[in-house]
Amino acid sequence: MKHSENSNGLLYKLGGYYLIPHELLHVLGYWLIGKPCQYQWGDYCVRPLAQRTRNERLFIALLPFIICWGLGFFFYLLWLVLAISIQLPFKQYLLEAPRWHFLCPLFASLFIIYGGTAHGDLLTAYHLLFTKKELNDKSQETEYQYIQEQISRNDPQTTNRDVPLIVRARAVEEDTI
Fold first, then answer.
1. Which of 33, 80, 115, 157 has its Cβ near the most Cβ atoms within 10 Å?
2. CA distance linking residue 124 with residue 52, whole number of Å
C-alpha cells in the first residue's frame, strides 16, 4: 500500500510539472489584465489574489487553449505555405524537401495535443457562460468551488459521480474492466 501512495504522489507531482507551461499562460493572462495572482512551480492551478469580472475570468481561462491552438494552426499554415512555395510534386517534396520543413507539422501537432490540457478551462468557461446568474451574489471563492464541483461531477475521468454523462452510451460496471 505504501508503494502505491508513493507512486500516486510522484504521478501527481509529474502532472503538476507537465502543466507548468499551461499555468504560466494563466499567469500571463493575470499580468495582461493587471490582476495579482499566486503560482508555485508544480501546482495544478493559479490562485487569484483579487476579484475578477466574468469577462476577466473567461479571458484567463481560455488563454492557454487559444495560444496552443493558435500556434498549432500557425505551424500547419507555415508548413502548407512552405510546401506550396517549394513547387515540387508531393512525392518529390517528401524526398527532397529540407528536413527542417517537417518540424512545422511536428510542432503544430505538439501544440494542438498540449492544448488538451485546457479541458478543465473549457469546462470552466462553459459554466461561466451558460450557468445561471445566481452565482453573482456569492463570493468568488464560493463560485470557484461551485464551478469546480460542477466540473468534477461531469469529468469523464472521475469514477464516482452521481450525474450521468451524456456522451456515455452505456453504464460500465467496475467488475467488467
1. 115
2. 14
What pLDDT score does 168 carry?
37
Nine-digit cell string for 67:
495560444
Q: What angle do CA 34, 40, 46 make, to 5 degrees?
A: 45
Angle at 171 between CA 169 and CA 173, to 5 degrees: 145
If you ran DSSP here, which 8-state letter would residue 49 be given?
A: S
pLDDT at residue 113 above 80?
yes
The answer to whether 56 touches 33, Cβ cutoff 8 Å, is yes
Phi then psi for residue 126, to 5 deg, are -60, -45
Closest CA to 58 of 135, 112, 127: 127
